[in-house]
Design a protein that fits this description.
This protein has 6 helices and 3 strands. The chain is mainly α. It has a 3-stranded antiparallel beta sheet with strand order 2-1-3, with no helix packed on it. α1 packs antiparallel against α2 and α1 packs parallel to α5. It starts with a helix and ends with a strand.
Length: 208
């Protein structure tokens, strides 16, 4: 499944979660999905994205570890979106949606930490906020890199003109260098010929 669809589903599922185990499970799934997206970016043939993609993958894995508590493990093992990722799609679009998902996760964990009834839950949320914040920072850098890559691709797009093959193209203005009166056009009258028709005693320049 394409990254954009998975990320949108993750945002919806996080918004629908009502109980602490479900919220933490969705937060961890978002971290695992971030890891998977980063890994896909690291495979691209783009120096501006591969290094940052690897860093994002590692940051996502770290966030998942921070949120890996017994209270969420069973819920996560029952199904993971990261394993259904088959294609990245447009990097800039996917990264924009991922940025929104990470923002949602961070805000949700802050709310959960404020209402935590145990110290363990509190620190799980705080550690998760810090780790997700790092992911979000890297996502922002990747979005800029992806935008630069798109601009460069548009600038060097398929509209570039190709050199015309020999024997084709615009007519050539031929100016004879021999003395006047030895055949050819009258003195001072240019002779327009097709490319490739220039003789040994002629100099050609592009017409116009």
């Amino acid at each position: 499944m394409e990254a954009l669809r998975l990320i949108r589903r993750a945002r919806h599922a996080l918004a629908e979660a009502r109980h602490v185990p479900d919220v933490l499970a969705e937060a961890r799934q978002a971290a695992l999905l971030t890891e998977a997206v980063g890994a896909r970016l690291a495979e691209l043939d783009d120096d501006g994205l591969t290094g940052l993609g690897q860093q994002l993958s590692e940051a996502g894995a770290h966030a998942a570890v921070c949120l890996d508590r017994s209270v969420v493990r069973a819920a996560v093992l029952n199904g993971g979106r990261a394993g259904r990722l088959t294609e990245l799609g447009d990097p800039a679009t996917a990264l924009g949606e991922l940025d929104g998902l990470l923002r949602d996760v961070g805000e949700t964990l802050v709310v959960l930490a404020c209402g935590a009834d145990t110290e363990s839950l509190y620190w799980t949320c705080i550690d998760g906020v810090d780790a997700v914040s790092e992911c979000k920072d890297l996502t922002g850098l990747l979005r800029k890199a992806a935008s630069r890559a798109e601009e460069a691709a548009r600038a060097a797009g398929p509209g570039r003109a190709e050199a015309a093959p020999a024997g084709r193209g615009s007519p050539i203005l031929v100016v004879r260098l021999g003395p006047p009166g030895e055949g050819g056009p009258a003195e001072g009258v240019p002779d327009y010929r097709a490319p490739g028709a220039v003789g040994a005693a002629e100099v050609s320049v592009p017409a116009g």
